[in-house]
Amino acid sequence: MKVTDYFKEKGKTHISFEVLPPLKGGSMEKIFNTLDPLMEFKPPFVDVTYHREEFLYKRRESGYYEKTSIRKRPGTVGICASIMHRYGVDAVPHLICGGFTKEDTENALIDLNFLGIQNVLALRGDARKFEGRFIPQEGGHKYAIDLVKQVQGMNEGTYLDSYIKDGTKSDFCIGVAGYPEKHFESPNFDMDLGFLKAKIDAGADYIVSQMFFDNKRYLDFIDKCHAIGINVPIVPGLKPITKASQLTSLPRLFYVNLPNDLMKEFSKYLDDKEAFKQIGIEWCIAQSKELKKKGAPCLHYYTMGDAKTIKQICEAVF
Fold this sequence. Notes:
This protein has an eight-stranded parallel beta barrel, surrounded by five helices. Strands 3-4 form a two-stranded antiparallel sheet. It has eleven helices and ten strands. With 318 residues, it is of the alpha/beta class.
C-alpha cells in the first residue's frame, strides 16, 4: 500500500518509525529488537535508511596507505523485505544519490518492485566524512530532484537502456525531505522552498521533515509550502534529546536550533543524566501531542535504536 493512501483517512494521525541498518557483520536481531516493542502502536510503515560508502585508509606492507571504499551499513533492501515479512507492514527504503550510479539505482528499484515494495524516500544524502562538500558518484545523480525524476521515469516505463520498449511500469510512491529550518546549503529559506517545490513538481508525493524542536517552525513551514502551491502531505520528523552531548552534536550535524525554553530546562540537569533524559522525553511528548492536535498526518520518529525511549513517548501520545 502507498504511504499517501494511509494519510487519506481524515482526522487520524498515524505513527511511523525510522531504523538504521546494522553495521556490517551485525544481524537482523538488532532491527527486530528495536521494532518488536513498537509494533503495538500499529505503524502502517517503517523507514529504513541507506548509507553511502565511506573511505578507509589501510596501511600496506610497503608503509603506504591504500584508500579503500566500504559500505558500513549495507542491506537496506533485504531489511525492508524482512520487516514486511515479519510484521506485515509496509517498508520505505531510502534511496540516495551519493555512492550510487544511475544504473545502481535502477537495479535497486527493479529489486524493490519485484519485492512488492511500493514506497521510496528519495534523498541526495550527505557528504562523506572529511569531505567539505557533497561529491556525486561518477555516473550518478547530483541532486535529489534527479533521483525523483528517475523513479518517476520508471513509473512511466522509462528505463536507462533506450532499447527497452514498453518497459514494465513501476508504481512507486515517492517521498522527499523538507527542512523547516532550511537546508544548510541553501542560500536562503525561499530558495530552499523553491527547490522543494521543484521536487514535488517532478513527481514526489509527500514530504518528511528534518527533525525540529520548535513546533512553530514546522507549522510555519507548512503555511509557506501551501503559499507556493505545495499541497502534498508533510510528515513531521521527531527525535527526543536524551544526552547532554546532543546539545552540541545535533545542531552541528543536522543544522537545527534548540529553543531557549528547552535549553533553560536542560541547563538545570546537566549533571543528572536521568533527569536530563526525562526533560528531553517530556519535550518530545509535548511536541507530539500538539502536532497530533494540529492534524499532522503522521508522526515520524527517528528511533536511533532506542526503542525504550520511543515507546515511552508513544505510550503518552497514542
